[in-house]
């Protein structure tokens, strides 16, 4: 999990989450809503609204069974479990994020609709054809073996199933500035261009329904100087967040990286 956090233990991350919730004036003993936790648990560019938009783009319905790969603290999974009301399986490599996700699932009363599994995106612990939708936000950047990743996603999707994602891609200009939220240095970052991403997905057996470069939209929406983060922030578990987020923004502004999203269907 290089670049992401200071390797807190599961107990540390649970304690930090509870402390942040209290500091924000919320009561962890009362049922919390996924939206009020959104600044804490949507660990990707664009936060809760980016997840909301991807849900609409992928036309996710209550009856869809969803797999969220690299689910982190499972903020997007809780959004989908709350509305439209899907059953979601989360697959996450880090045991501490798995513990934080399970805690937040309980605090939101959504633990009956969400199951957290610790494991690797490259060896998914699910039978072939298990899911209607595979969801992945800001995870591909940490995975070098994209052919295997997309083969696994294709395998666990039902015929006609959708893969909904957002991630960073390479830009035309040189390399990004480090450290970044997903990688402390270049050895941890595995970006490909938008064209390469599409070609890899086609090779794995997907056809595009939507593919968009949302870099400019994202930059224009976040043009105003960001307000200082409140107690519920990614800084609860990401070291040097201001520096990493600043480098991501500067790299995006200078065309060193691009923000892309898409919905692809299994042939
Ligand atoms: C930037 S976070 C995004 C978390 C979540 N998708 C979200 O948007 O809130 C990336 C997550 O992917 C997980 N991850 C990275 N590589 C993985 C892999 N090979 N298998 C499973 N999880 C992985 C990391 O542990 C981390 O929690």
């Amino acid at each position: 999990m290089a670049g992401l956090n200071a390797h807190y233990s599961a107990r540390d991350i649970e304690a930090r989450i509870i402390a942040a919730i209290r500091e924000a004036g919320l009561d962890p003993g009362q049922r919390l809503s996924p939206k009020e936790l959104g600044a804490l648990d949507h660990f990707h560019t664009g936060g809760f609204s980016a997840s909301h938009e991807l849900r609409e783009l992928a036309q996710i319905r209550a009856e869809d069974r969803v797999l969220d790969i690299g689910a982190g603290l499972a903020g997007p999974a809780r959004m989908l479990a709350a509305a439209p009301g899907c059953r979601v399986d989360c697959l996450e490599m880090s045991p501490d994020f798995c513990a934080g996700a399970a805690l937040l699932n309980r605090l939101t009363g959504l633990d009956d609709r969400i199951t957290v599994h610790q494991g690797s995106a490259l060896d998914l612990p699910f039978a072939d054809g298990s899911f209607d939708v595979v969801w992945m936000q800001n995870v591909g950047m940490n995975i070098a073996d994209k052919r295997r990743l997309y083969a696994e996603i294709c395998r666990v999707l039902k015929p006609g199933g959708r893969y909904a994602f957002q991630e960073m891609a390479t830009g035309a200009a040189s390399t990004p500035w480090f450290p970044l939220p997903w990688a402390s240095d270049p050895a941890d970052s595995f970006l490909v261009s938008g064209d390469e991403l599409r070609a890899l997905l086609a090779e794995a057996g997907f056809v595009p329904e939507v593919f968009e470069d949302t870099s400019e939209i994202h930059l224009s929406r976040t043009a105003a100087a960001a307000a200082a983060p409140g107690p519920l922030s990614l800084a609860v578990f990401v070291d040097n967040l201001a520096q990493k987020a600043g480098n991501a923004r500067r790299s995006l502004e200078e065309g060193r990286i691009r923000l892309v999203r898409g919905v692809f269907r299994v042939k």
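Residues 10-120+131-266 form a domain with the Rossmann fold fold (CATH 3.40.50.150). The chain has nine helices and seven strands.
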